[in-house]
Amino acid sequence: MTLAEMQFVPPDLRLASAEIFVLAMTCLTMIVDLFVKDTKRTATFVLTQLTLVGAAFITLSLSSGEILYTFSNMYVSDLMADVLKLLLYLTVMVVLFYSRGYLQDRPQLAKGEYYTLTLFATLGMMVMISASHFLTVYIGVELLSLSLYAMVALNRDSVSATEAAMKYFVLGALASGLLLYGMSMIYGATGTLDISAIADQIAQGKFSPYVLGLGVVFLIAGLAFKLGVVPFHMWIPDVYHGAPTAITLFIASAPKLAAFAILIRILANGLIAASADWQSMLIILSVLSMGVGNFAAIAQTNIKRMLAYSAISHMGFMLLGVATGVVDGDARFIYNAYSSSMFYVVTYALTSLGTFGTILLLARAGFESDEISDFAGLNKRNAWYAAIMMMMMFSMAGIPFFVGFFAKFSVLQAVVAGGHLWLALAAVFFSLVGAYYYLRVVKVMYFDPPSSSESIKSPLNVKLLLSVNGLAVAVLGIFPNGLLMLCAESLARSIPF
Known about the structure:
Helix content is 73%, strand content 1%. By secondary structure, it is mainly α. The protein has one domain (15-492). It has a two-stranded antiparallel ribbon with strand order 1-2. A hairpin with a 4-residue loop joins strand 1 (68-70) and strand 2 (75-77).
């Protein structure tokens, strides 16, 4: 190799300016928090929110709709990345608003570490969304994972939180190992870690089929761990239950957007020509997740564990679209299928925000409000909050006319269009099973006697935000086309075919 060939090409830092800004502001937030004496951490909270607003402004101002690469093709900026990042910022901002009162009631959690770890986790998700190289994917995944391990263990006085963090760490490390091994096998098969180059090598037949197949198996297993789908779901119920509810809210919403992004980056952008190797695996994972998640949720009395198994089933449902995009080697259906999955994961994050936001609203100092019985008679205590929770449950169950119904419908039509009628029928059956435990929560709220006569107190901004959250679930169920078209357009302009 000549000296000319070894010349360093400076990266276009402008494309990654949102990530650079978030990293700089996170460091500034850590320094500022050292001097904050206010137990409410107002300055830290405001600075964190300003960081997210600033990142949104940068992302929006730099969005061109074109596919642009930098850092030697390790980082990609496209419309899908821009849309998912904007939704990510919004999600994290809402999480912080919902969580603030909960944190203030618990001095062991009301620390600056919560906000800085949230920003580091957000940065990891941003890197995941824009990753176009296996090393970038791994950096983003680990930055997110390490932040979440620490967040789950923030309440050191809680045995359940510490146990959940240990389980999360051990299984997360195993998942990372599987992911790395899969990446190394694919590197051995194709000779590159660049996702676009991998696609070219496979399209040209310049790969080892057996090594590639084995690599795909390990890669899918690692991704399945991170998504929390069966049979790699063991950490989900314990982490959801053991972690403080504010942390559970974060885990249940924002990371789902980033997980969808790396699925598309790796499978659609890199391994679409090898779809026969991974689509059947995803179908199996999807059916198992919907089955185990829905049936296990029926037996739960703790609402956080119920929602954990619900999340497993929902991620299985989301995988349906990704698993049925290519039909007999024909990739014409992928935009319809993948946009349906993207719409599903966005609306699920929105619904999770409202659900856990209501749980946080009912929680108070010394009381978690994490049992289904804690919602007894909520309609008599506050009819509006009961109505919001009912809308969330109806949406998750896929009952018309809420956004969850249309999200499920859009995925099912993509599955049927791909020729998998039996899979659509199985998904409908499991959705009917899932409706039982969602309706049980509604029954408890409206027909059981109140478990407490204490009034529900919350700041005005949280009340307004929760109301907007609930109305968004209802309005998007009636007028879903705008968001669905945005998902379709962002994928059409980001997956090069």
